[in-house]
Specification:
The chain has two domains: about 90 residues, no CATH class; about 80 residues. α3 packs across α5 and α5 packs antiparallel against α6. It contains nine helices and two strands; from the N terminus they run ββααααααααα.
């Protein structure tokens, strides 16, 4: 608590960006110091008797200590949120509301990104599905889990026309879909498409070579003259 008369602050990282972790540690600190009641209760109304005044005075002391503990446990960027209030409860709620609003805005953005997921032209299936799974993980960190079946449907909706057949099959499955099974089937279609394009390219090159060989000019010196029966005489 103190050393040589100096106050030692809470033994956990000050609040910067990770509110959920900070809230757990700060709550534990307040409970340990028997100050948590100031965060979850309002000030008792002062009564006409001595007992009512004592309860109010005790709450004031607890609130003052709890508010100070919260104030020293945040970084300077958040001080304005906890110094412009008079109770620990107000300070706690102010921080909670700030981070909930931020997380909700972030969640909306992520869900929009997921619902508008599209496979880029230069992406292969592995990269595309990995990107989708990465987007899915972020809402989960904010407490909003996107189930696997929903993710599969979002991935399928973002595929180009060459995947229409397998997309229809997977979208109309009776059982729940999973990423691993979907990825395997999409990779098969991708591989077939790659092989088809490779064969087509080879065929075109062969035809072009044959055409150029057919059109290759003949050496005049090798041609036998019709009149004198000698080579090179045209």
């Amino acid at each position: 608590m103190s050393e040589h008369g100096r106050y030692v602050g809470p033994r956990f990282a000050q609040l910067d960006d990770d509110y959920k972790v900070w809230a757990v540690y700060c709550r534990a600190q307040l409970i340990k110091k028997k100050l948590w009641s100031a965060v979850v209760t309002d000030r008792p109304v002062s009564g006409s008797d001595a007992k009512g005044n004592v309860a109010a005075d005790d709450w004031d002391i607890t609130n003052e200590s709890a508010l100070a503990t919260i104030q020293v446990s945040v970084k300077p960027v958040h001080l304005h949120s906890v110094t412009g209030v008079s109770t620990a409860k107000e300070a706690w709620e102010a921080l909670k509301n700030i981070f909930e609003a931020r997380d909700n805005a972030c969640l909306l953005q992520l869900m929009h990104e997921l619902s508008n997921l599209k496979k880029n032209g230069d992406e292969n299936i592995i990269k595309y599905t990995s990107r989708a799974k990465g987007i899915r993980q972020e809402p989960a960190m904010l407490g909003n889990q996107v189930d696997e079946d929903t993710l599969v449907l979002q991935v399928l909706s973002g595929l180009p026309a060459e995947y229409d057949m397998i997309k229809t099959v997977l979208e109309n499955m009776d059982r729940k879909r999973n990423i691993a099974d979907m990825s395997a089937k999409l990779l098969t279609v991708e591989q077939r498409g790659s092989n088809g394009r490779s064969s087509s390219t080879t065929g075109v090159k062969s035809q072009a070579f044959a055409a150029s060989a057919f059109k290759k000019p003949r050496d005049k010196k090798s041609i036998v003259s019709y009149y004198c029966d000698k080579k090179g005489h045209m």
